[in-house]
Structures are given as C-alpha cells and as structure tokens.
Specification:
By secondary structure, the chain is mainly α. 79% of the residues lie in helices and 0% in strands. The longest helix has 30 residues.
Length: 171
C-alpha cells in the first residue's frame, strides 16, 4: 500500500545499482588481466557485448508482457501539454529532475580528480566510480526508502538528502 511506497522504491533503486556494480567489477577485472592498456579495451568491449547479450536473454526469458484488452498507445494533444505546463507541481518535478541530473554531472568529476591529483590508477578510479555511483545507491536507496516510510514524508527525505549532497559538493 501507499505506506510502503518509499521502501519499495528504495529496493527498486538498489536493484538498479546492483547489476552495474557486478558488471563493472567484471569489466575492471578483465581490463586488469589484459594489461590495463589500450589493447585491453578490445576485451572490455567484447565483455560488455557478452554481458548485454546475457542480460537481454535473461529479460526475454523472465519478463512477461501481457497487453490488456483494449489497450492502445495514445499521445498527448497540444491542449493537454499546455494544461500540464501550467501546473506548478510539474515545475517542481522538473526542478527535482534537473537538480538530480546536475548532481550526477558533478559526481562524474570525482574519478578524474582522484586519478589526476591523488595518483589513483585507472582501475582503482573505475572501481571507485562503481562504488560511488552504483554501490552507494544500493545501500542509500534501501535506507532512504525505509526512512521515508518511517517519517511518512518522501518529500522531506528527498529535501534533506539534497541538502546533504549540496553540502558535500561545496565541501
């Protein structure tokens, strides 16, 4: 029910982060085994291709789509789009999405910063990237979902997390 929405969404986000960590660690391992040089990129491309094929096969075998009777695709009319644009809530959602994207863009500078100024190897930088970008989401997604359900306010938890992220970026 709606009282479990935060927790369930957090678990969903954790699942989205789990597979990229798994795939990424395999790729870093292959890159290191092949010499961590330009030639190793061929092995990385082949490995990603195999992993994508494997993921597509798993999705094909286990995800079933059942079209409901009478279901059809319908686009929004110009009048409906204009009506949505006039909604203040839509602009707040757009602001959250824009802010989230900017956070991700800022976070992408961490790995080059660590390799350039702190001397981390490319492999360690890639591993740090996986942990920072995906693995933290596994733990953070579940934790923030449970906290949102406990407090009863998803919006409050999102606002607090954004403030923490802003403080971290400034720091």
């Amino acid at each position: 029910d709606s009282s479990e929405q935060g927790r369930l969404f957090g678990i969903l986000e954790a699942g989205r982060g789990l597979f990229p960590v798994f795939y990424g660690l395999i790729i870093v391992w292959i890159f290191n085994k092949l010499g961590a040089a330009l030639g190793a990129m061929r092995g990385v491309f082949i490995a990603y291709s195999v992993l994508c094929f494997f993921g597509a096969l798993v999705a094909f075998l286990f995800i079933k789509y059942e079209k409901e009777e009478g279901e059809r695709q319908k686009g929004a009319s110009g009048k409906e789009v204009l009506q949505i644009i006039k909604m203040p809530g839509m602009w707040l959602v757009a602001l959250v999405i824009f802010s989230s994207y900017n956070m991700y863009a800022c976070f992408s500078y961490l790995t080059p910063y660590m390799t350039e100024f702190f001397g981390l190897s490319d492999s360690m930088g890639a591993t740090l990237y996986l942990i920072r970008f995906y693995a933290i989401g596994v733990v953070g997604g579940i934790a923030s979902g449970f906290i949102a359900d406990k407090t009863g306010s998803n919006a409050r938890v999102i606002a607090i997390v954004f403030l923490i992220a802003i403080a971290g970026l400034i720091g």
